[in-house]
Structure formats: structure tokens, C-alpha cells
Write a structure and sequence with these properties.
Layout lengths: L5 H9 L8 E4 L13 E3 H4 L5 E2 L2 E3 L4 E4 L21 E4 L10 E4 L3 E9 L7 E2 L2 E8 L2 E9 L12 E4 L11 E7 L6 E11 L4 H22 L1
Parallel strand pairs: 9-14
Antiparallel strand pairs: 1-14, 2-5, 3-4, 4-7, 5-6, 6-14, 7-13, 8-12, 8-14, 10-11, 10-13
Length: 225
């Protein structure tokens, strides 16, 4: 094999390490023990007694809810929420703290997710604002927030997108914290769906691939000259 071809083949093999990372989409649709469409249950149990889904360790207070679930289980009551896509979404239905400070442990880059209020129509008050903090250990690296549209009536509202792509500027991300406003001991509920993550390549992998790509550039210049 020609020595001029070897760097090109090496670079071709390593190029995915520096190209756009494959996205990880978590939509809660393939859980092995998902609740019925008209019910709600813990994500831990729905995921086969595991908190890990899509490369993320999810807070054990998160619940999975079906698209036909209704407040109090009464068919005359409105739907608890509307998934952004598919049949299921998650909520922070934890008691007694209403799921304050829900945590997601992962080194993946969170690019965004969809959120809405969950009001339960007389059974509690909705979250008004969602804020996601990017964490590096115990340090807060930055945050992004979304004001949720107020619900004027009994029907559940469609979800809104919270764009967190600005987190790509941070290094050393170890997870995220989802907060809601107001932060109090009351029932401040939200629903969420369709979390979009991107894997972050290891620094040593990027370095190896960069060397290979540089070799390609050198060979290309030599061939042109």
C-alpha cells in the first residue's frame, strides 16, 4: 500500500471523532414496563428498575405519564398533559417537594427539551418558569430558562421548546439540574418530553483525529505541488 494512501485511510477512519457527534434522543417511548396510557408511574419502575436511560442517570423522583392520563383518574377531568411526541411524557410529580431541583447525571451535551405546565386544576399550582443549570460537579457552569405560557382554561397546553445549545460553550459538564419558579414547598408541577443530547468526544480522541487530518492536508499539498 502506498505510504501516501495510509494517512488518508487513517483520517477517514478517525474523522467521525471530530465530526458532529451522534445525537441521543430520549422520548420515553420504549420503556420496558411503561404504564398504561391512562396511568402514571415512576420512571425507575417503568425502565425496569433502572435510573439510566439514553446514557443519562435520571432523578428517581421523575414519573412517566401516558397521554390519556387524567387528573384524579376521573374521565370527566382534563388530560394531565400533552406529550410533544408519541404516547408518554415525564413530570416532577414528587411529594412533598414537588420535584424541586430534578437532576440528570450525564457528560452528554443537552441541546434542548420540551416543557409545559401541569396544573391539576385545583389540586396544585403550576410551575411558571423552567430553568436548567449545566453542572460541573457542584459548580453551576451556566443556565437557560423558559417562561411557560399560563393556562387560561381546563385543557392541557402544548409543550414549548427550551433551547440549551449554549451549553456547548462549557467544558467539564457532569449533569444538569431542572428548577422551577416559584421554588417553594407547594405543588409546582411541570411536564417534559423529547430531550435531545449530543455525546462529547474525549479530548484524546480529538487529538488523535486532528493529527490524522493534518497528515491528509500535508499529503494533499505535496500531491498538488
Amino acid at each position: 500500500m502506498s505510504s501516501s494512501i495510509r494517512p488518508i485511510l487513517l483520517a477517514a477512519a478517525l474523522l467521525p471523532l471530530v465530526s458532529a457527534s451522534a445525537s441521543v434522543f430520549v422520548g420515553f417511548e420504549a420503556l420496558p414496563l411503561a404504564p398504561a396510557l391512562n396511568a402514571s408511574g415512576s420512571l425507575f419502575e417503568a425502565n425496569g428498575n433502572s435510573q439510566v436511560l439514553g446514557g443519562v442517570t435520571w432523578d428517581n423522583r421523575i414519573r412517566v405519564t401516558g397521554r390519556e392520563n387524567r387528573t384524579g383518574g376521573d374521565l370527566s377531568n382534563p388530560l394531565s398533559g400533552i406529550p410533544h411526541g408519541g404516547d408518554f411524557f415525564i413530570t416532577n410529580e414528587a411529594y412533598p417537594d414537588a420535584g424541586n431541583g430534578i437532576t440528570l447525571q450525564t457528560t452528554q451535551l443537552l441541546e434542548g427539551a420540551w416543557f409545559s405546565q401541569v396544573e391539576y386544576y385545583g389540586f396544585g399550582n403550576p410551575a411558571m418558569t423552567i430553568s436548567i443549570q449545566a453542572l460541573g460537579g457542584i459548580e453551576v457552569l451556566g443556565s437557560a430558562s423558559l417562561t411557560l405560557p399560563a393556562n387560561p382554561g381546563p385543557a392541557a397546553l402544548p409543550m414549548q421548546f427550551l433551547n440549551t445549545s449554549a451549553f456547548s460553550a462549557f467544558t467539564g459538564i457532569t449533569g444538569y439540574r431542572i428548577n422551577q419558579d416559584p421554588l417553594d414547598a407547594g405543588s409546582r408541577y411541570w411536564s417534559a418530553d423529547d430531550f435531545q443530547f449530543a455525546a462529547v468526544p474525549e479530548p484524546q480522541s480529538v487529538g488523535i483525529a486532528a493529527v490524522a487530518l493534518a497528515a491528509v492536508a500535508v499529503m494533499a499539498r505535496r500531491r498538488r505541488s
